[in-house]
Amino acid sequence: MKIISILCVMAACVALPLFSMNASSADNRQVVFIMLGAPGAGKGTQAVRLSEQYGIPQISTGDLFRENLRNNTPIGQRAKSFMDQGQLVPDEVVLEMLFDRLSSKDCAKGYILDGVPRTIPQAEVLDKRLSESGAQVIVISLEIPDDLLVGRLTGRLVCGQCGAIYHKVSTPPNVEGICDRDGAQLIQRKDDTEEVVKERLKVFHEQTEPVKGYFEKKGNLLLVDSSVSKEKTTAQIDEYLSKVLPSASH
Ligand SMILES: [Zn+2]
Question: pTM of the full predicted structure?
């Protein structure tokens, strides 16, 4: 973990001058968080927390798909036609759903992206749009070795109602199988079996890890060691945010 710690310091050094230049206007600028990391690295958990802390919505690709399919929108139907054939939904379809969502009123102050951008083309289009809008962009990559992820993911439980994430061992609900927030049933996703998890990690390394390199080159990436407890992961992120977001004193 030494290497990651050093990288964190390096990333913070590179990123700080960029952000602090704009610190005086931070109060009225839109703040956009981009959460990167392998499946199971804790993106969802941190995104939910940041959403509550800053009062801005968390937007995941899963939510975008579900919302569009439920409302049977034209773009949802297009996405479904790819999924039905077992194909990846193309970048332009994902981006159209995303930009449609970002035009909502509740995104005016800012938002947290969880699971998107997933590819370099998605990152390029999004980055261009964010640069034009003058938003303050904070990219956080949660770093964790694959073997730890396999253990985490195969014990994961998700609330079918609100999407809250639990773990059989590390963060169990108060009542077994029941969500603490809304009392709904917790489920194990079909794709949380060991075989599927390993395949998902392979896809992540091939497709999504380059997105990290993209933002790293731009100098606004925070690398966070998320092989530690949730509290320690949170502390690393909050320490960084207290420097780059002057209004984030709570
Ligand atoms: Zn729930």
Answer: 0.76
pLDDT for 218-237, tens place per residue?
888 999 999 998 999 999 99
* CA 8–ligand 1 middle distance (angstroms): 33
Report the top-level CATH class of 2-17+30-217: alpha beta
Query: Residue 14 pLDDT more than 70?
Result: no
Q: What's residue 193's pLDDT?
A: 83
Distance 166 CA to ligand 1 centre (A): 10
List residues with catalytic annotation. Answer: 43, 118, 156, 189, 200
| Ligand 1: centre distance to CA 180 (Å) | 7
Domain ranges of the chain: 2-17+30-217
pLDDT in tens, 134-157: 999 999 999 999 999 898 888 889
Question: 221: CA distance to ligand 1 center in Å?
Answer: 31
CA 199 to chain centre: 20
